[in-house]
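Hi R.,

Here's the chain you asked about this morning:
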Amino acid sequence: MTDPRNARGAAGEQAAVGALTALGFKILERNFRTKYGELDIVAVDDDALVFCEVRSRVGADGIAQALESIGPAKRMQLRKMAREWFRLSSAERPRTQGIRFDAIAVSLTAGGHLLGIAHIKGAF
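And the predicted structure, written out as tokens:
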């Protein structure tokens, strides 16, 4: 039996990719695995290399719950994963003025349909 959280997570990540692409971001990597965990999305916008953490929750208050779930320990883990990305990735590294960590919160129905999405640039 498949865990419904995996399906919701995949739906949330797909919604996040669509939102980023619509904003003009170029997606470099998805689900990049490191020894510290998995980077959801690595992208480039106009001036930064962006490491995006995507959190999906079910229900009308899902966006708030998703953003609250990115605590200090997760932020530290994301920084470690970003360092590993620089060390291990074979993706082309575009010239940018810096790096940034964004949070993308996705609210879904129990059936996996999009209710809302919030993109917080420079979330941490």
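Residues 4-120 form a domain with the Trna Endonuclease; Chain: A, domain 1 fold (CATH 3.40.1350.10).

Let me know if you need anything else.
M.
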